[in-house]
Amino acid sequence: MKIFIDCTHTAKHTYKNTGIHRVVRELTSELLKISSNRTDIEIVAVMFDGSFIQRVTNLNQQQDDSIKVNKYLVITKINIKVKSILFRLKNKLIKLLHLSNLIDWFDLNSEKKKKVLPEFEGSIVQPGDIYVIADANWDLPKTYYRFLQRLKMNKVTIVVICYDLIPIKFPEFSSKGFTEVFTKFYSDYSTLFDKVLCISQKSAEDYKKAKSQGILDNNNTQIIQTFRLGCNYYKDNLLLGEINNNFDVKLQKLLNKKYILVVGSLVPHKNIKTIILAFDLLINSSYDDVFLVFAGNKGWDSETDNLIESNKMYGKLIQILGSVTDAQLDFLYQNCYCLVQASFYEGFGLPVVEALQHCKPVIASNGGSLPEVGGDFCRYFSPTQPTELYEALKELLDSEIFYNNLVERIKNEYVPFSWQESAEEFLSCLYN
What we know:
Blueprint: E1 2-6, H1 8-12, H2 19-36, E2 42-48, E3 53-55, H3 71-96, H4 100-109, H5 111-115, E4 119-120, E5 123-124, E6 130-133, H6 142-153, E7 157-162, H7 166-169, H8 176-189, E8 195-198, H9 201-212, E9 223-226, H10 240-243, H11 249-253, E10 258-263, H12 272-284, E11 290-295, H13 302-309, E12 318-320, H14 326-335, E13 338-341, H15 350-357, E14 362-365, H16 370-374, E15 379-381, H17 386-398, H18 400-413, H19 419-431
Parallel strand pairs: 1-2, 1-6, 6-7, 7-8, 8-9, 10-11, 10-13, 11-12, 13-14, 14-15
Antiparallel strand pairs: 2-3, 4-5
Helix pairs in contact: 2-19, 12-17
């Protein structure tokens, strides 16, 4: 039996290193390792090429010599953006000319296409095979839907990994365009899903609730299960001693500093405003030797960017590092004072388990799945109360004994969950 892992978005955008891209890379890598030692299954990483699938041989993130985005990366992003715009224009033209219905009619009424799938590298996709939508494929063309329909007609099991339903649950945290695309994907495609694998109990609850509310298809009987994500994201061959030589000067300066780390793209649901307000309270309370470091892409939301960049401490005690590689992120975790995850809502919260794996104190909001993921190893606060975050940070900073005891407790009691274990749990869900 073949299990196809759809990695389309990650394979096409190897320079990206957001949460979903990292999950796709780590999970797929471990699944391929497991598959190499088994004869009953074959794991195949694939991407959708517009009509069918092709094998993916490399999902590794392109490593840069520094955190600074080089001009080639900028050109790559621009080219991708231009292609995306042209593709959307082509789709709009087809729609305006009323060609899409005609294409659908030919595609779905061709008996040959209904009953026979094209060959995949010399072999036929068989009934009983499993196709897993593991990536952020929300903006793929309509041909992707028709492709999945044909898989389903041929008795291939369709599985989707649901990371969260934030754009549906909290549309105010996303742009109108993205909310529409995301909602349309889940409302349309949910008719095809045989199984939904969620990354937390909270995400599973959200999915079931969206079905009961009629936002997602409620006629399709689906199996909804959960599996945990791993935390040992970095590769064995990423040796920090070698990589440090190429680090940006900004990062090198942090080596002997006490800094609060925030990991993730600077998007509205990450609740950056509360972090900034709490940090201002720290600075005003004479904690002027503490840095605030953001490791994640900016440019997603200009309001959030302006909020940080307009602060009087920006460029001094407040730093934005932008996108970082796994090795650089590992360095940041190892040397940070603590991690803050202030999100209004999370489907999982990878930085929480990654920081705990590095035995670092975590101050997290009680939004979404964060208490589920962090358990009683984190200090929690209400995401709408900056003073609560300030008090939690002050508690750490005011007592070295309290801080060290917390670190020791994490070292002695926290049990990390590896990506190998995550992959095994994932496979177990597929079989049950």
